[in-house]
Amino acid sequence: MSSPRVRPARPDDATAMARVHVRCWQQTYRGLMPDHVLDDPGFVDARQRLWTHVLAVQDDRGHRTAVATADDEIVGIAMSGPPVDDDAAWSRQLFVLYLDAAHHGTGAGPGLLEAVIGPEESAALWVAEPNPRAQAFYRKHGFTPDGATTVADGVTDLRMVRTPEA
């Protein structure tokens, strides 16, 4: 297995990105979300429609997307964009960062993060609670919880923010 490489996502990546997105949700959220959501036969198709749309309009909406590839296969995905939280005091929001579990610890996660949010940019994200591995990853990259939480689909998310020093 080769080391993952990170590159900008392209429109023809949508199908593979959808598969990775669903596989990572199944790896990460099993036990946190209902199985019928994670195993829905239409889940991959729904994510493919999402990624097809995002990749078609990303430049117009200020989105940045990236993929990690290993052996010519997409194994990770990331996307950021302008903040959507009403109280945003940061310049970017991380919406997606998923890496297939087989590639954890390879450096692809930090590469994906940096590809969609520059180290000098302030940013925020929402992460599942509990998800200690992801929270530790984000802490390592300068994000800290700010106390905000939300609940969607039975999963509690906490917000983490990063404000780089000037």
UniProtKB/TrEMBL annotation:
Domain of life: Bacteria
Keywords noted in UniProt: Acyltransferase, Transferase
UniProt KW Secreted keyword: no
PROSITE patterns for the chain: GNAT (PS51186)
Domain N-acetyltransferase: residue ranges: 4-165
UniProt xrefs under InterPro entries: Acyl_CoA_acyltransferase, Bact_Acetyltransf, GNAT_dom
Tagged with keyword Transferase: yes
Name under which the protein is recorded: GNAT family N-acetyltransferase
